Amino acid sequence: MYMAFLFQGLIALNMLYAFFLGNVHAGFTALLMLILTLVPYWVARKMDVQFPWFVFFLIAMALWFHTAGYVQGYYTTFYPYYDKVAHFVSGTAVALLGFLGVIFIDRYWKMNLRPHFIAGFTVIFGLAMAAAWEIYEFTIDSIFGGNLAGRMQASLADTMEDMIFTLVASLLVGVLASLWFRTHRKEEVMKAQPHEPGGLKG
């Protein structure tokens, strides 16, 4: 959890740095990334559930990858390797979030979903979020313009490679989920949040 807090702090510092330099679209992206890191905490408190610690860590680290890439220029400095690593890490985090999300929905609405469906949904969710992110990048580029070095999308090939790396990460999570279900029940993923000092509910 401390590592998750560390990456959240780094995202906040990058946001302030971007706005200080007058890089509005990078600062706005960093702000969005920071807000997204807070979503799991809000869900855990609101829905009275306890996520595994690595969920918070992976999400914060994945969003830091993207934030630092834009603000610090790592996407350009370490092109094309940084971009692909960032999308693989974020793909893993997003797919894991989809996995936990569909299990929560299944429990909340008593849908009795089969493990294979949950694993398949995990992959589809990861790819869907990758598409949504690429649409966001295209929208920001269309609004703010700029040359290729300052754009979020360098080319069509770059966009497709990003989605492929995210798909590979999502498939990995889906396969691991299927293997996990062989020896565990889906009810074991999220436990009720204890109402005691030290819990997220406090």
Can you give me a brief rundown of this structure?
The chain is an all-alpha fold.
List the helices and strands and how they pair.
Elements: H1 2-21, H2 24-47, E1 49-50, H3 53-71, H4 74-77, H5 81-108, H6 115-144, H7 156-181, E2 191-192
Antiparallel strand pairs: 1-2
Helix pairs in contact: 1-2, 1-3, 2-3, 3-5, 5-6, 5-7, 6-7
Q: What would you say this structure looks like, in words?
A:
With 202 residues, the chain is mainly α. It has two domains: 1-72, no CATH class; 79-187, no CATH class. Helix content is 75%, strand content 2%. The chain has seven helices and two strands. The protein has helices at 2-21, 24-47, 53-71, 74-77, 81-108, 115-144, 156-181, and strands at 49-50, 191-192. α5 packs across α6. The protein is globular, with a radius of gyration of 18 Å.
